[in-house]
Design a protein that fits this description.
Blueprint: H1 17-21, E1 22-27, E2 36-38, E3 42-55, E4 67-81, H2 93-106, E5 115-121, E6 131-142, E7 150-163, E8 174-179, E9 182-183, E10 192-197, E11 207-212, E12 215-216, E13 219-224, E14 227-231, E15 238-246, E16 258-261
Parallel strand pairs: 9-16
Antiparallel strand pairs: 1-2, 1-5, 3-4, 4-7, 5-6, 6-7, 8-10, 10-14, 11-12, 11-15, 13-14, 15-16
């Protein structure tokens, strides 16, 4: 046995398997724009779907319970490690967004501050557990004590939760919205926000071109996997497709990527 060298120990993991295998994205844009960003620092996460029932027992059941299903509700329970940037001067942007959403409901009676979320297998596996819906921050519970700070959060579903194709199943870029959607034929007069996905998969920018119809953008910056800012070139009056090309391919043309020169 070696002397003076303590044996290595295996660190205790705090991350649940669901947190390892599944990813939770938060839509931080103002509707109808869409800007999904990954919630970082997730240690525990679970999606709960529950049937809503009411008593349906009749005399003939002789005391045995009977229930009728009248609907369902859903929520995501998640524990995050409260995170800052490397300088410790700012909170992670998505975590700060959730905190702001919760605080808005404490001080306003104008209704729930709803936003979109996506839940899916981060490896692209089609496991039947890829979902999308709208929710609000129902509870926000910081940890006590003097140790590392964690937050227990409940994201309460509002309305339906729908099955979606796993966004990680294909890395071909998609454009879900742009803002603004119109500009002058002279170009170079404004910054256009392009929202979608697979612009920067796995943290590596793979965008090779951004075009407005047949003309390349004057300039563009890949902000995140779901956000590009671009300066449109000059163009003829009419509607063109905003095209994002990566090493994997180019987004399919939909009305969501229409930009109109006027």
């Amino acid at each position: 046995e070696r002397q003076g060298h303590p044996m290595a120990t295996t660190p205790t993991t705090r991350v649940t398997e669901l947190a390892r295998t599944h990813r939770l994205d938060i839509d931080t844009a103002t509707y109808p724009a869409i800007n999904y960003q990954q919630l970082m620092g997730v240690e525990e996460a679970k999606l709960l779907e529950e049937l809503r029932t009411e008593d349906d027992e009749v005399y003939d059941d002789t005391g045995a319970m009977r229930e009728e299903v009248t609907g369902y509700n859903w929520r995501v329970e998640v524990k995050i490690a409260w995170s800052t940037n490397l300088q410790g001067s700012a909170i992670d942007a998505v975590q700060a967004f959730l905190r702001t959403q919760f605080k808005a409901l404490r001080t306003s009676s104008a209704g729930n501050a709803e936003f979109g979320i996506r839940w899916y297998n981060r490896e692209g596996l089609d496991d039947g557990e890829s979902h999308e819906g709208r929710c609000y921050v129902k509870s926000w519970a910081p940890s006590g004590g003097k140790g590392r700070k964690t937050i227990d959060i409940v994201l309460q579903g509002q309305g339906q939760i729908t099955d979606i194709t796993n966004p990680a199943g294909s890395l071909t870029p998609t454009v879900t919205s742009i803002a603004p959607t119109t500009g002058s034929t002279a170009g170079d007069d404004q910054v256009v926000n392009i929202y979608g996905q697979h612009f920067k998969p796995n943290g590596t920018a793979s965008v090779t071109a951004v075009g407005f119809g047949a003309n390349p953008a004057t300039d563009y910056t890949v902000v995140s996997d779901s956000h590009i800012v671009a300066i449109p070139p000059a163009g003829l009056a009419g509607t063109v497709q905003v095209q994002v090309t990566t090493t994997t391919g180019t987004n399919t043309d939909t009305t969501a990527d229409d930009y109109t020169y006027a």
